[in-house]
From TrEMBL:
It comes from Bifidobacterium scaligerum. Residues 13-252, 277-517 form the ABC transporter domain. This is Cobalt ABC transporter. One of its GO terms (molecular function) is ATP binding. The keyword Protein biosynthesis does not apply. The chain crosses the membrane at residues 527-555, 567-588, 608-629, 745-763.
Amino acid sequence: MPANRSHSPAIAAELNHIRFSYDHGASWALDDVSLTIRAGERVCLVGPNGSGKSTLARLIAGLTAPDAGDITLLDHHVVADVTPNADEYRAARRGIGVVFQNPEDQLLTTVLEDDVAFGPENLGLDRTVIATRIRQSLDAVDMSSVRRADPTRMSGGQQQRAAIAGMLAMNPAMLVLDEPTAMLDETARAEVMRVLDALQQRGTTIVHVTHHPNETRHADRVIHMESGHIAEDASGQATAQCPETGVLTPPPAADDSSTPLPVLSNSSTPQNNAPIIRVSHLTYRYADGERPVIDDLSFSIQPGETVALMGTNGSGKSTLARLLCALARPESGTIEAAGIPVVRPKPAHRKQIAQLRRRVGYVMQHPEQQLFAETVAEDVAYGPRNQGLSDADVQQRVREALALLHIEHLADRSPFDLSGGQQRLAAIAGVVACRPDVLVMDEPTASLDVQAKARIHELLHTLKERGVTMLIITHDRAEAESLADRVVRMPSPSEAQSSPSIQRDAAPQSKTDHRSPVHQLDPRVKMVGFLAAMFTMFAVNTPAQLATGIAFTLAVMMAGRLNPIRLLATIHPILALMAVMSLCNLVVVRTGTPLFTWGPLSVTDDGVTIAVLYTCRFALVIILGAIFLTTTTPTAITDAFEALLHPFGRFGLHTQEIALVMSLALRFIPTLTDETRSIIDAQAARGGSIETGSLSQRIKAMSAIIVPVFAGTLRHADNLSLALDARCYEEGIVRTHWRVFAPSARDAVFAVTVIAYIVAIVVL
């Protein structure tokens, strides 16, 4: 782990009479807050949702400026007399690390070691220092063995540790964390806390926002926030602030000797009546996975039963929930829910899906992905309206659902303007309003304060009294045991097995690189070579040239050690579209001998030849592009792009910024795609016509996702801006490049091969 700064200030952060508003002073998120944090202290911020904890943490991290007050961070007077000083902020942030609640938006690249290197690169450190920082930081979070893996495809626990590693590599004097364990299982949470304990021992100042009393055990101070004010500042270790009563109570000690939970299987289910949920020999694997995340799983749940489902991050709990709700298809096995065959042995048809939506409700893990209407009331009404109820009945359902969650006052608010906790309550209300017979809830109380959790628990007891069958995914064992008739655990594959990208790229850098020769090519040489070969394909006009192109493409595919079937599966929609466009030549080309005529349309032998040629030509171009993208990480692509554009920097072209935008686009386009899919699933789960309606209804439903996708894009952009600030990136700075390209003999061989191919096409 990097050594601590030798001259840390005695005061890490000092805030005097701070006020902050998100609505230009109509209300105050922080109102006259004063706080001093000494260097080396471990301070926990606790309190209910909306009390101002996260806002205060952002101010301490130097990521935003207040509307009033005075702030000094690490001896830098960043705000004096309400006037922010950009230079002082810039200097202070070089010594402050920040870890967000959702690490996904904090991970900026698709290679772990490159992500850890990003901050030190912005600090302009020497490459040998960066190499040392990467090694020490990954060792500190126990992730050295997966340094080449894609962090965006890791489990939640690994992503959070990766985000912490990125901060440690910058050697911060102060580390600010906003609920870093909110979505983690017990094991992953313990891993994060061990890292914080180690940082505390070496003297790093830690500011930790948390809802978990156990996480305050080693704090020097616990600061309780209420309605934008500091309600109490309690000094001393081993104390926890109760968000409801304000009474300080010692947290319970960790229990490492608890009885293991039974593994989910048929043997753990009492067979008294006909099950309302029946799963038999279920197997599911991700599209690019070699090992199944769910393997031959069987279980059943009785009507009216409440089952709490636990398990490690990556064990397949959320995937199982989506399978039960017909939002994903298993590789094999059968599922029956509420008497409706979801998979048996074929997928349910539209009518069965419509019936399933009426009887099975689904609360997603991330509530912001489940809200899409203009107001909370409209969002809650979405499901009942799809059930064909009258306006009066719909309004009655809405009032009842809002009352059950105690959020009647939010009815006319936009769901996109709510806090995370309020969004979760609104999302649950929207599902409860459908009055399902079976309710599947994925982490319904994550990130909620004690009062909000109590509301959810009260709701669950009410639903149980009404006979609703519930499957609740949770990481809180005490909650599971208090709410459920049975507490069961998903079989736990190792994290490496549950993350295909980690399994494939787990080997750290060493003298022996087991990747394919195409993977190992210098990305600059590879980019130029592939582009040249792809453009040359457009010159293919004869069978001999086509055969040469096919031979070249197959040779590159073999050298890349790629599975042809899996590769083609990723691009088959594009290939199909190109084939349809190329086949238009059948009726457009008029030259040659007519083969047959149909009214005004005539097909000739020249038309057939050209159609086949164009189809094959476009297919080869697409396949070569897929090979390039499969064997080259987005990070390598953007580094190569920047290197190739570098000479144009002399003419004023901002090559570094252009390359960064390209890198972030490649990094976040899959995230936005997944979020769009989640919104579509949210509509479908509440009986929306996006999957079961007529063509016009489905088009209308698709148009309804535009606003929430746009809101999600803005949210990601805001978080991305904060992530770049936290990593000290600024426009125009001179950055060190950790990864330096060095062409080798294999690059020369590849270049010669591409040139030979181009010459062959020209000659033929």
